[in-house]
């Protein structure tokens, strides 16, 4: 009788302990770009929502970048996927990542870095700003491409970035259309170069 009572009393505590350990293991965020590439759209959304606002000092310098095509690509719009593959995963154009730096007056700036076998290297300029995102409904690092040195089509791009692990950031690129809400283009990841 005593044995049965002990089992009844300790059983819920053991179960709770096992569930706590399992949820802690499941909650471990991806720590590499390769791990992010294994996630689906919903998992990327959850990770983005739980990410922290990056400090610009953490991003200073060149960061390696990679476009992330969600595992469940049926949730990804067809023309966006084609554009991403053409621009970011092409053997002719290589998106290398981003570079964050201060100008002579101390203001933060950033560049999106590309390399092409035909044209050499190039970049698009961005202005980094910590602000509330109307798309993500939270505070993020915005990278605004509205710069007179960028082509007009590129000036419509807006990136949002959050930190998901030490030295790893998850971002989403949006395209501003004439009317209506911005269109999501692609997920991307940035990591510090060792």
Give an overview of the whole structure.
- The chain is α+β, with helices and mostly antiparallel strands.
- Helices cover 28% and strands 39% of the residues.
- β6 and β7 form a beta hairpin.
Q: Key features?
A:
alpha+beta, single chain, 194 residues, globular, 5 helices, 8 strands, eight-stranded antiparallel beta barrel
Query: Count of DSSP E strands?
Result: 8
Mean pLDDT: 79
Strand portion: 35-45%
The radius of gyration over CA amounts to 21 Å
Which of globular, elongated, flat, extended, rod-shaped describes the shape? globular
Protein structure class: alpha+beta
- N→C terminal distance: 62 Å
The major pleated sheet works out as: 8 strands, antiparallel, barrel
Compact description:
This protein has about 190 residues and is of the alpha+beta class. It is about 30% helix and about 40% strand. A hairpin with a 5-residue loop joins strand 2 (about 95-100) and strand 3.
């Amino acid at each position: 009788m005593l044995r049965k009572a002990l089992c009844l009393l300790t059983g819920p505590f053991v179960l709770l302990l096992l569930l706590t350990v399992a949820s802690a293991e499941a909650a471990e965020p991806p720590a590499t770009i390769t791990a992010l590439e294994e996630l689906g759209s919903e998992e990327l959304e959850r990770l983005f929502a739980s990410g922290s606002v990056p400090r610009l000092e953490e991003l200073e310098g060149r960061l390696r970048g990679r476009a992330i095509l969600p595992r469940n690509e049926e949730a990804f719009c067809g023309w966006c996927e084609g554009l991403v593959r053409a621009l970011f995963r092409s053997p002719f154009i290589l998106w290398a990542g981003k570079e964050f730096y201060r100008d002579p007056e101390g203001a933060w700036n950033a560049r999106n870095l590309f390399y092409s076998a035909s044209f050499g290297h190039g970049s698009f300029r961005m202005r980094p700003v910590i602000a509330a995102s109307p798309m993500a409904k939270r505070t993020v690092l915005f990278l605004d491409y509205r710069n007179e040195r960028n082509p007009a089509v590129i000036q419509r791009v807006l990136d949002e970035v959050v930190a998901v692990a030490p030295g790893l950031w998850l971002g989403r690129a949006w395209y501003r259309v004439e009317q209506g809400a911005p269109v999501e283009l692609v997920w991307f990841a940035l990591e510090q170069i060792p």
